[in-house]
Amino acid sequence: MRHNRLALTLALSLAATLGISSLATPTLAANATPDRPRLEADMPQLLQLYKELHLAPELSRMEEKTAARLASELRALGFTVTEGIGKYFSPGYKGYGLVGVMKNGDGPTVLVRADMDALPVEEKTGLPYASTVKVRLPSGQETGVMHACGHDIHVTSLVGTARQLVAMKNQWRGTLILLGQPAEETIDGAIAMVRDGLYDKVPKPDYVIALHDWSGMPAGRVGVTSGPAMAQSTQIDIRVRGVGGHGSAPQTTRDPVVLAASIVMQLQTIVSRSTAPQEPAVLTVGTIHGGTKRNIIPEEVKLELNMRSYNEDTRQTLIAGVRRVARGAAIAMGVPEDRMPEVTVIDAEFAPVVINDPKLNLRVEASLRKVVGAENVDQLPAVMGSEDFGRLGLDGKFPTVMFRVGAVNPAEYAKATAEGTVLPSTHSPLFAPDPEPTLRTGILGMTQVVLDLMPR
Ligand SMILES: [Zn+2]
Ligand SMILES: [Zn+2]
Q1: What is the largest CA-CA distance in the chain?
Q2: What is the pTM of this model?
Q3: Pair 111, 163 in one domain
């Protein structure tokens, strides 16, 4: 700040000397920074909003109340809001994507995205505002629901950023689009919005930005990654079919439980034996379901797999490996040809690699260094986690950058580091962001990024 004031004083005295009148009423926009006192004044309300969202998490594709709340917050701030974007899923699915647009003169179009969905996790943080929400999944299983990925931090940060930018409207220009995205955890909310005509409803962005809270960093710090940052993600279902019968007469059956167990074990050899060692790859069997009673050999068992990789060859090797293993194991077990396993690659739930555009990333990094201090900006390695955020950039057509915001209480982080203990990661029932410093850093960071991308 002192440097800025000094520069302004110098500019003014130079202007006076040269008699340049236009500099006599200078705008500070090129050096505009967030309004910190206003943020502190807003903080109690923002914390209240965060806690309300945390208490009322909604699963992917069911973000009805969260979306309505975000829409009303943005509308109250003067944004033109369009709701109900993203109707491409199964019939009857409403689509809870929304955008708030604010036109503020000629200038770049910047889109800031916050995802809104929660996870089927039963919260065990013990916090006074811990979620007690329970729902029944389509499978019939009852589950708790929790903002275990911190998307409530994202929604609240978006509202906080909106408040800052509306209050500082004379310090930026262009078109600001704030986007609430459903169904990130099922990795199909962004593409649903795009396919539902998102870019017919709002101007095409010059820059697309998002933040994500991070369980591996103390609150107050941020992290950036240039280039490929998050892996592609592929979902596969295997319907393992057998021939059912009495549990006491296995010779009359082809047991799909044993076959599924065999497939799960053989799948472990695909990454270790079929993909190139220098290419990262992950294959995880996340669910296995089958059977109704202990003395019945069932007709089928269902496996749900998730795979990560960074290149298309590796992805195709994984897919081919899954098909080969499933069929091979079934043949070895004597399953009839018409009962071979059915392997389905779920195209709608594919997420490509998230690439942080290197040029835009440099600008984002510079803004973050300015607002949180260079010593608080980390260079983070690429991870095997995935995101559908890149879809909003139409897979490279518009530059995208996602930065990370530390979410762990700094004292807890220091203690865990000193003791060598592992802190709960996102998606854990114990993940508990320290909301105030996390929100403060997220809002300051995002506000600065937008101000610098839309200078007056
Ligand atoms: Zn997330
Ligand atoms: Zn997540």
Answers
A1: 101
A2: 0.86
A3: yes
Cα(257) to ligand 1 centroid in Å equals 33
Is 184 one of the catalytic residues?
A: no
**Domain containing residue 16:** 1-31
CATH code of the domain covering residue 294? 3.30.70.360
At residue 52, the 3 state secondary structure works out as: helix
- Same domain? For 370 and 398 the reply is yes
Q: Do 83 and 188 share a structural domain?
A: yes
Instruction: Give buried/exposed letters for 280-310 (b at 16+ CB in 10 A, else e).
Output: bbebebeebebeeeeeebbbbbbbebbbbbb
Query: Around ion ligand 1, which residues have CB less than 5 A away?
Result: 149
From the candidates 35, 42, 63, 185, which is the catalytic residue?
Answer: 185
CATH, residue 155 = 3.40.630.10
What was the pLDDT predicted at 150? 98
- pLDDT tens profile 168-193: 999 999 999 999 999 999 998 999 99
Confidence check: pLDDT of 279 > 60:
yes
Let me know the angle formed at the C-alpha of 183 by 177 and 189, rounded to the nearest 5 degrees. Answer: 55
Q: Could you give the CA distance from residue 319 to residue 406 in angstroms, rounded to a whole number?
A: 35
Confidence of residue 348 (pLDDT cuts 50, 70, 90): confident
DSSP per-residue codes, 321-376: HHHHHHHHHHHHTT--GGGPPEEEE-GGG-BPPEEE-HHHHHHHHHHHHHHH-GGG
The rounded Å distance from CA 53 to ligand 1 centre is: 15
* CA 337 – ligand 2 centroid, Å: 39
Ligand 1 centre and the CA of 444: distance in Å?
A: 20
